[in-house]
């Protein structure tokens, strides 16, 4: 997303009950255990993080509802276990994903080395998802094991990754930026889908009119 254009979007987080009449978009958060997936989601949801680590044993689902330019956007955020065997054994995890957020920790080289595994899973099981790459725990700069230039190269080498930046879920660094990226990307996807439906309906109506016109011409010729 081009943040120079952020002024085009008016965002309000409503926290209201989901409507069955509106689409619900799925966002999954994946990565090695201990990189801060649960803390990231907790911060996005409530702006509170206590620094304690509780490993997610399977999947935890949170809801976010936002109003963007008077359009209601409904999002399920799936907090996924960092176990690749669990992920591979759970095909529904990758089904109908709009955005996949892969998180590594800048002080954990192993978590960065596993990015390719997670990326390949997405390309195999969720080909149409938008991919975000997040380097978490940048408050631990003195413990850094992954240079930002190395992570940027990984992003540039894998063109399906839409964005990359670093965060600190614990200290709320770039959490607003991450949430805005999620919400605006979903909003743009929602608008595109609605436009595609409208265009398809217009095309159908045009074809029907043309067909009626052709039938009318045939009848005129038949009468002469």
Word description of this protein:
The chain is α/β, with parallel strands linked by helices and 224 residues long. It has a single domain, classed as P-loop containing nucleotide triphosphate hydrolases (Rossmann fold), CATH 3.40.50. It is 40% helix and 23% strand. It has six helices and seven strands; from the N terminus they run E-E-H-E-E-H-E-H-H-E-H-E-H. It has helices at 37-46, 84-88, 109-113, 115-125, 148-157, 175-223; strands at residues 11-13, 24-30, 59-68, 71-80, 97-105, 130-136, 161-166. A seven-stranded mixed beta sheet has the order 1-3-4-2-5-6-7, sandwiched between helices. A hairpin with a 2-residue loop joins strand 3 and strand 4. The longest helix is centred in the last third of the chain and has 49 residues, at 175-223. The protein is globular, with a radius of gyration of 22 Å. The model is unreliable at 47-55 (pLDDT under 50).
């Amino acid at each position: 997303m081009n943040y120079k254009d952020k002024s085009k979007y008016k965002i309000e987080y409503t926290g209201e009950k989901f409507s069955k009449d509106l689409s619900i978009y799925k966002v999954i958060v994946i990565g090695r255990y201990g990189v801060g997936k649960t803390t990231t989601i907790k911060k996005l949801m409530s702006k509170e993080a206590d620094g304690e680590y509780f490993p997610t044993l399977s999947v935890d689902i949170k809801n976010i509802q936002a109003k963007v330019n008077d359009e209601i956007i409904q999002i399920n955020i799936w907090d996924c276990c960092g176990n690749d065997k669990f992920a591979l054994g759970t095909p529904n995890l990758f089904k109908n994903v709009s955005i996949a957020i892969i998180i590594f920790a800048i002080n954990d080289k192993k978590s960065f080395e596993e990015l390719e595994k997670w990326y390949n899973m997405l390309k195999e099981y969720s080909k149409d998802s938008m991919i975000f790459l997040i380097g978490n725990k940048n408050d631990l700069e003195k413990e850094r094991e992954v240079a930002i230039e190395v992570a940027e190269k990984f992003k540039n080498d894998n063109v399906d990754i839409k964005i990359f930046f670093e965060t600190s879920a614990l200290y709320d660094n770039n959490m607003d930026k991450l949430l805005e990226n999620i919400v605006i990307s979903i909003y743009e996807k929602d608008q595109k889908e609605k436009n595609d439906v409208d265009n398809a309906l217009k095309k159908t109506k045009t074809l029907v009119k043309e067909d009626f016109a052709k039938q009318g011409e045939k009848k005129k010729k038949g009468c002469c």
